[in-house]
Design a protein that fits this description.
This protein has one domain. Helix 2 runs antiparallel to helix 3. By secondary structure, it is mainly alpha-helical. It contains three helices and no strands. The chain is elongated. 84% of the residues lie in helices and 0% in strands.
């Protein structure tokens, strides 16, 4: 779908199985991103307070990215 126009992408995502598959890809990618960044933060941030702040920021950022992507997929899937 990378080179398709808006109408083609909307037509493909309007099929329920495609939308569900895309949602699964989004969720698994964001979880993978959050866990990877968590490992980096735990390994390279030295202060305990800073580590907690960065871990919370990582979780909030990951949730925001996931919600935005899920909203976009659902909006395309329902044709709004």
């Amino acid at each position: 779908m990378a080179g398709d126009d808006y109408a083609a992408v909307t037509a493909r995502l309007s099929h329920p199985l495609t939308a569900i598959f895309m949602l699964g890809v989004i969720v698994s990618s964001v979880v993978h991103m959050r866990i990877g960044m968590q490992v980096v933060i735990e390994d390279y941030v030295s202060g305990e307070g800073a580590k907690i702040v960065w871990l919370i920021a990582n979780t909030v950022f990951s949730a925001a990215i996931a919600l935005a992507a899920i909203f976009a997929i659902l909006k395309l899937a329902f044709g709004a």
